[in-house]
Amino acid sequence: MFSTEKFIKKTSEELKHYDGKAIIAVSGGVDSSVACILVHKIFGDRLKAVFVDTGFLRKGEITEVSLKFKKLGIPLKTVEARDVFLKNLKGVADPEKKRKIIGKTFIEIFDSEAKAFGADFLVQGTIAPDWIESGSGIRDTIKSHHNVGGLPKNMKLKLIEPLRDLYKDEVRLLAEEYGLRKDLYWSQPFPGPGLAIRVLGELTEEKINICRQANAVVCDEIFSSFEKKEIPSLPWQYFAVVLDSKSVGIQGDIRAYGYTIAVRAVEATDGLTATYARLPQDLLEKISIRITNELKGVNRVVYDVTHKPPGSIEWE
């Protein structure tokens, strides 16, 4: 049985052997937050926490993350890099290439930040499902995670991955041990590449903005339904995906082509397997009506009823 006390003691002792400075990418999610706290307690000001605005963040996320780390008492530097990411991803539609480019761009940014800080190590919140799904030479690659799939072989920073052998439920126990608010440690998983992998095909400002708004609607409606006790619990993960192709719809009295939004909600424990969430029909209808009414250029909403396996939780 997993013991938070034993894990913290063991990991803290291991971290004491690292001399030098470290830099960490934080997202505000539970994995990077717990990794940051673990290392910060040993490194102190030898650790620099950096938050990158990739342009693929959720609505209001920059403000929310800044406030979270201020309350944790950990200094946070925000790097504006949305133009860099969009430039590097221009013309790229293949999902695997997108993930690799995002990972590589992250590392380039941190390499620059690390040089300015004089860092020797890169701390990452990689957990077991990340590297299992990215392949280890034994299994075929399912998909590359930005934490592990885009690292260049000549990367100058050495990796520290304190959560590498843990699963999501164990990380949440650590978060609880550290006294994090439940809305932080029980928040649903959000991929490192962000909304970039919830926009199928080539990324454009229009599609990213549609994706951001659609995800906000899905989250608002599902959480509202939970608060009203219309559903017994929140799904493990829930979000919206912008499909690459357009479908025909009706605007006034004429035919018009618009984007299709796929809504995804799943129940899971560790993310390695999942079943689609059986949301009430009324809730799905509310989501559909809001998205098609509020988002310009969208005329169709579908619900994904695929389990994992055979599908993955994210679409890319």
Kindly describe this structure.
With 316 residues, the protein is α/β, with parallel strands linked by helices. The chain folds into 2 domains: 4-185, HUPs (Rossmann fold, 3-Layer(aba) Sandwich), CATH 3.40.50; 198-303, GMP Synthetase, Chain A, domain 3 (2-Layer Sandwich). The chain has 10 helices and 9 strands. The protein has helices at residues 4-15, 30-43, 61-72, 82-89, 95-117, 128-134, 168-177, 182-185, 205-227, 281-294, and strands spanning 22-25, 47-53, 76-80, 121-123, 158-160, 237-251, 254-267, 275-276, 298-303. The strands form 2 sheets. A 5-stranded parallel sheet has the order 3-2-1-4-5, sandwiched between helices. α4 (82-89) runs antiparallel to α5 (95-117). The protein is globular, with a radius of gyration of 20 Å.
In brief, what are we looking at here?
40% of the residues lie in helices and 19% in strands. It has ten helices and nine strands.
How are the SSEs ordered, and which strands pair?
Blueprint: H1 4-15, E1 22-25, H2 30-43, E2 47-53, H3 61-72, E3 76-80, H4 82-89, H5 95-117, E4 121-123, H6 128-134, E5 158-160, H7 168-177, H8 182-185, H9 205-227, E6 237-251, E7 254-267, E8 275-276, H10 281-294, E9 298-303
Parallel strand pairs: 1-2, 1-4, 2-3, 4-5, 7-9
Antiparallel strand pairs: 6-7, 7-8
Helix pairs in contact: 1-2, 2-7, 4-5, 9-10
